[in-house]
Amino acid sequence: MINNAIEVEDLHVVRGTAHVLPGLSLTVPRGSITGLLGPSGCGKTTLIRAIAGIQVVRSGTVTVLGEPAGAPANRARVGYVTQASSVYPDLTVRQNLAYFADLSGVGRDAAEAAMRQVGLDSQADTLTGSLSGGQRTRVSLAAALLTDCELLLLDEPTVGLDPVLRRDLWNLFRRLADGGTTLLVSSHVMDEAARCDLVLLLREGRLLSRATPDELRSAAGTDDLEEAFLLLAERSAA
Ligand SMILES: Nc1ncnc2c1ncn2[C@@H]1O[C@H](COP(=O)(O)OP(=O)(O)OP(=O)(O)O)[C@@H](O)[C@H]1O
């Protein structure tokens, strides 16, 4: 059993004219919640796309669950929830999940269970297009949960959610991690770092820090994770 769910080595990605990831190396341990934190534009989505195997990379290696990123063997083992909703607006929540359940070869019971997991059972018969942005994200998340994947890649899943929904989603992430799923969750909200087992801080495509929230606080000498990030960013620029 390989202990790391993800191993990235000397990854270079160029998008347009920008060298977005200029030689990034990092690892993500199995069975835990790793937060990918950093300011807008620092390369979080690009890295997640590379891990999902859908990003053209210039060089370097990305190994996911022991396979090269994007390997067919990982298709049912890796779930990816993008920032943009990936479900059909003209279908109800239940119809969307039933459709994805059929595509994934799992039963309709799995669709109902996933709907309950994300707390959308009361909206089961609502058209997905008339849900709020946060509710639509939860439909996408439910679709990713259908196959009991080993690794979940979640790109800013809590954007636009109110504090209660955010807390509920983080509780769900914790339950999934307790059950052995590895989660990589991107966010630019530093207070979400406190809910992670491990935090990767990215800045301009470089790894500024890889630490637990407690290690971050003591390295920066402050309890405020936002402040800790700013201090670490200033130190690295000095
Ligand atoms: N399709 C694209 N073509 C060219 N450049 C792109 C493209 N998508 C992103 N970029 C650039 O790549 C860099 C990293 O973008 P990325 O989306 O990975 O950042 P991010 O940290 O996820 O940002 P956010 O938190 O705002 O989603 C940015 O400078 C962005 O302008």
UniProtKB/TrEMBL annotation:
Protein name per its UniProtKB record: ABC transporter, ATP-binding protein
Residue ranges of domain ABC transporter in the record: 6-229
The organism of origin for this protein: Aeromicrobium marinum DSM 15272
The organism's taxonomic lineage, starting at the top: Bacteria, Bacillati, Actinomycetota, Actinomycetes, Propionibacteriales
Annotated CDD domains: ABC_DR_subfamily_A (cd03230)
Pfam families with a match to the protein in the record: ABC_tran (PF00005)
Annotated keywords: ATP-binding, Nucleotide-binding
Matching SMART domains: AAA
Signal peptide extent: none
Record flagged with keyword ATP-binding: yes
InterPro entries: AAA+_ATPase, ABC_transporter-like_ATP-bd, ABC_transporter-like_CS, P-loop_NTPase
Keyword ATP-binding: yes
Any one GO molecular-function label of the UniProt entry: ATP hydrolysis activity
